[in-house]
TrEMBL record:
Ranges for domain Nitroreductase: 383-548
InterPro entries: Aminotransferase_I/II_large, BluB, Nitroreductase, Nitroreductase-like, PyrdxlP-dep_Trfase, PyrdxlP-dep_Trfase_major, PyrdxlP-dep_Trfase_small
Keywords of this entry: Oxidoreductase, Pyridoxal phosphate
Domain Aminotransferase class I/classII large, first and last residues per copy: 29-349
Domain of life: Bacteria
Entry's EC annotation: 1.13.11.79
Membrane-crossing segments per the record: none
Matching Gene3D superfamilies: Aspartate Aminotransferase, domain 1, NADH Oxidase, Type I PLP-dependent aspartate aminotransferase-like (Major domain)
Full protein name: 5,6-dimethylbenzimidazole synthase
Essential cofactor(s): pyridoxal 5'-phosphate
Gene Ontology MF term list: 5,6-dimethylbenzimidazole synthase activity; pyridoxal phosphate binding
Leader peptide range in chain numbering: none
Length: 594
């Protein structure tokens, strides 16, 4: 009994509210890269399935409809399947079914600690067979052969692809191993196999001593629902069923499980996108001096000096990664891949936390070899620049605003006048005055519209000025000494245009880091100048709200989504002749020629 008392629950991925509260962090404002879940927006049919689930009644304890969908997917009989409340339930259920006190268990590591814990709770003796660090922890089943041949082994746990290393073993390798030791049960956890390209599952291998575990939690982003399944010989599934707790798989989980399988192509597309995001994250880490291990899946293992301290540093910046103490790797962290916005926020946090080993490499001024992938990403960045209206209140990483201002100041300016002036509005009482002016001006603006247009206007929730953690007033110095007046004699307004170019630089740089910007134009410029106490010669160009968006970015602007206005095709604004351009412009505006 004393040995059993030392077996404690491990904290795996995901946010720990008990840790966040002392740091003053809300879970809504933390980017969670500690758990390996597919980054995807669920289709409407999946969300509707969750809403329509009959949760007032007891669920089908055998999940028969979901089991049928999975049987079709894997071409196996339904009797070969057991549905569980995530893989964690099935890991413990499998250990309870297979093991007796003092049985010997092998775990191919470093890997998920729950295999060892589940085995020890059954009184089994566990031996970790660790892969070699100099070989980047590439697992080799040859390491298992000696203990398998020298004593009776009841159970072998193999995670494939492995967590946290991301290494993948071939089906033929595993099949040869299991065939050679028919008296030993091999538990093959394939929770991450959908993330790996060209991976072959052990499902359908035909071996009685193999039980495969799969997770929809990871591959279909159902962490809050919890859904996994085991596949094996019908008699083994029957034995596990006899030991389960009834009704662990809710009606909501069963309905959502069926719905995601019906939309498999949607999740396949998200997996494909994730591969590109992973390469960009790896590149960003390497640029900062890190040496992430190669990985076949949607997470990477990164060596650091102290995993616990590294994780805490990033958490203070609003980004959660997984330290690897529970894997026996205290000098590593595991980082999940999400979308490019998440990667931008991670890299910004790394820069802010001072965790990088080397400064980011600077491109030379003479570079001309941008490849097509870079150009595609750049054009996508232009298209996905958005005027953000809804912000998280999470503070930006230390140094983020300085980086963005530095980038803004690389903009072209007439006569190299650099007429931009940036003022951070941090004082809460000052912000309150600006906010009050905004709301009074907003009510005046609403009166300009009638009927449906007025209703549409009032439904646009322009609350960024209240929620954004950073606010920035951008001014133009209207007649700067710098530049000596070059280029301004006939068009003095070009100094203001230069400031607009700087704002665009700022905006795109922010978007590349996953940071949103909202341009608040519904303020009184003179009142704003008075509130901020800036020189009389400064003219307000923009009041910007800056922070992490609370909604996912889309290619379609919000105003277009809400039918406020539709974007015209670019060809409507361009012509190779003056006459053609004039005709098009008049057609758009409805004006008459002079």
């Amino acid at each position: 009994m004393s040995d059993m008392q030392t077996i404690r629950e491990e904290h795996h991925g995901g946010l720990d509210l008990r840790e966040l509260e002392p740091l003053g962090l809300s879970p809504d404002h933390v980017l969670d890269l500690s758990s390996n879940v597919l980054s995807v927006v669920h289709p409407r049919s999946v969300r509707q399935a969750a809403a329509d689930a009959a949760f007032a009644d007891y669920p089908d304890r055998d999940s028969n409809q979901l089991k049928h969908c999975l049987a079709v997917r894997h071409s196996v009989p339904q009797e070969s399947l057991l549905i569980g409340n995530g893989c964690s339930e099935l890991i413990h259920l499998l250990a309870e079914t297979v093991l007796a006190a003092n049985d010997k268990v092998l775990v191919l590591g470093p890997t998920f600690s729950e295999y060892q814990r589940a085995s020890q709770l059954q009184g089994a003796r566990v031996q970790q067979v660790m892969a070699s660090q100099p070989q980047d922890f590439a697992e080799s089943v040859e390491q298992l052969e000696h203990p398998l041949q020298s004593e009776a082994i009841a159970l072998v746990w193999i995670c494939n692809p492995n967590n946290p290393t991301g290494h993948l073993l071939s089906r033929s390798t595993l099949q040869t191993l299991a065939t050679s030791h028919p008296q030993t049960t091999f538990a093959i956890d394939e929770s991450y196999i959908d993330f790996a390209e060209n991976a072959e599952s052990m499902i359908g291998c035909g071996l009685q001593n193999v039980i495969v575990l799969r997770s929809l939690t990871k591959s279909h982003a159902l962490a809050g629902v919890r859904l996994g399944y085991a596949v094996g010989a019908p008699d083994r599934m029957s034995q596990m069923t006899d030991r389960r707790v009834p009704w662990t798989v809710s009606a909501v989980a069963q309905a959502v499980g069926r719905a995601v399988l019906e939309q498999q192509s949607h999740y396949d597309a998200a997996m494909l996108k994730l591969q590109g995001c992973k390469q960009r994250m790896l590149a960003g880490l390497r640029e900062r001096g890190f040496q992430p291990l190669d990985s076949s899946v949607g997470f990477v293992l990164v060596p650091v000096d102290d995993g616990t301290a590294f994780r805490l540093n990033l958490l203070r910046q609003g980004v959660a990664v997984r330290d690897c103490d529970s894997f026996g790797l205290p000098q590593y962290v595991r980082i999940a891949v999400q979308d490019d916005a998440a990667t931008g926020r991670l890299l910004a946090a790394l820069d802010g936390a001072g965790s990088a080993g080397v400064p980011v490499a600077e491109c030379t001024a003479t570079r001309t070899d941008w490849d097509s992938e870079f150009r595609d990403q750049l054009h996508q960045l232009f298209r996905m620049r958005r005027d953000v209206r809804h912000f998280q209140r999470t503070a930006l990483p230390v140094g983020a605003m300085k980086r963005l201002i530095d980038t803004a100041c690389t903009a072209p300016s007439v006569g190299l006048s650099q007429p931009w002036r940036f003022v951070s509005v941090n004082d809460q009482s000052t912000r309150k005055q600006v906010e009050q002016d905004f709301y009074s001006q907003n009510q005046l603006a609403a009166r300009q519209y009638n009927g449906q247009a007025q209703q549409q206007y009032l439904q646009l929730k322009l609350q960024g000025i209240r929620d954004a953690p950073e606010q920035l007033a951008v001014f133009v110095q209207q007649d700067p000494d710098q530049g000596k007046g070059l280029g301004r004699q006939t068009m003095p307004e070009t100094v203001a245009y230069s400031v607009v170019a700087a704002i665009q630089n700022f905006w795109l740089a922010a978007r590349a880091e996953g940071i949103g910007v909202g341009w608040v134009s519904i303020v009184d410029p003179q009142r704003t100048k008075a509130v901020l106490g800036v020189p009389a010669s400064w003219q307000l160009i923009a009041y910007l709200c800056v922070g992490y968006p609370s909604t996912q970015a889309t290619l379609t602007p919000e105003l277009e989504q809400k039918n406020w206005e539709q974007r015209q095709d670019a060809q409507a604004f361009w012509s190779e002749s003056i006459q053609g351009q004039l005709r098009r412009a008049l057609a758009i505006t409805g004006d008459k020629p002079r």
